[in-house]
Each structure stands twice: as C-alpha cells, then as structure tokens.
Write a structure and sequence with these properties.
The chain has 169 residues and is mainly alpha-helical. Helix content is 50%, strand content 6%. The chain has one domain: yst0336 like fold, CATH 1.10.3560.10. The chain is built from seven helices and two strands, in the order αααααββαα.
C-alpha cells in the first residue's frame, strides 16, 4: 500500500491531534495536525481491512453486527449499483450526495463511526493506492464492502495475494 502521509511530527503533536479528535466537530477549525490524524486513522483502517480480506474468505467476514441490515437496505436503495468497479462521481457528484444522504443518515445511531472518513478501493480486484482509492463515509464503505464480500467481488484477492507472496522457485 503506497500513500504519502508526510512527516508525522513528534509524539506530542500526534497526541494533541488525537485529543482534538474528541472535540465538538463544529468547534474545530482546519488544522493540519487533525487532518493528518484522520488520514493516519483512515490509512490504518484500510491496511487492516485489506490484510483481512487477503487472508480469509471475504464471504465469511462479518464487518458489523448489522451487516444483514446494511446489505438489505443498500440493495433496496441502490439495486443496480455495480460494486466491483466504482467511479468517484457515484459518491462525489451533487446528485450522488443527494441519493446517499438519506441512506447514510439511517445509521447515525446504529453504526459506530458511521460518518468517519474511510478509504474505499475503486476497483475491488486491486490493492489500495492513490489511484485506486477515494475517501468516503464509513457507512458507504461498509455498504460497498459488505456487498463486495457477499457477491464475490473480493474473493480473488486471497488467491492473488497468496500467489504474489510465494517465493519463486
């Protein structure tokens, strides 16, 4: 996974940025330390998730206690949404935002960190990279990745990564 998070600064800077994450978001101004902390958290989540789906059968994974609800709701609201290869406009355009907003708001009190920024792979066959990742809300990530896991779009990763990690003979 290749992302440039820049210099991380000292432990004191990271700790103060971490403390700021606990503050009321309406009172926080743009702060590079806080943005870096969010980027680090999103990167760590992406790295952990990709390692997991590369090591075990994604069809068996349960990402939340409400996976069934998220999947059923997502497929009801977005029945023709192709989750294997995504376009950024499906999340970022004004029309897309209007469509996603009611879906996301349902999970405000149901899914932990439902609105945290989370990295999502555009192409399910590939690893996270700058070209293959966008920042979405955690609930959007969950809806897409639960669908990818259940519909088999992440299944090839385990085989692909086991082949590339085997030493050449």
């Amino acid at each position: 996974m290749a992302f440039d998070l820049g210099g991380l600064g000292g432990a004191q800077e990271v700790m103060s940025a971490g403390a700021a994450l606990q503050m009321d978001p309406d009172k926080i101004q743009n702060n590079p330390e806080i943005e870096l902390q969010w980027a680090m958290k999103a990167y760590h989540h992406a790295e952990t998730y990709f390692s997991l789906i590369s090591a075990v059968d994604p069809a068996c994974l349960k990402l939340t206690s409400i996976d069934d609800e998220i999947y059923t709701h997502f497929r009801k609201e977005f029945p023709d949404f192709q989750v294997d290869v995504l376009e950024e406009e499906e999340f970022k355009s004004e029309a897309a935002k209007q469509r996603w907003r009611p879906f996301c708001s349902v999970y405000e009190h149901k899914a932990e960190d439902y609105n945290f920024g989370t990295l999502l792979r555009l192409d399910a066959r590939e690893d996270y990279s700058e070209a293959n990742s966008i920042l979405v809300l955690r609930i959007q990530f969950l809806a897409i990745e639960i669908s990818r896991n259940r519909e088999g779009h992440n299944s090839g990763l385990r085989k692909k990564n086991s082949e590339t990690s085997e030493p050449a003979s």
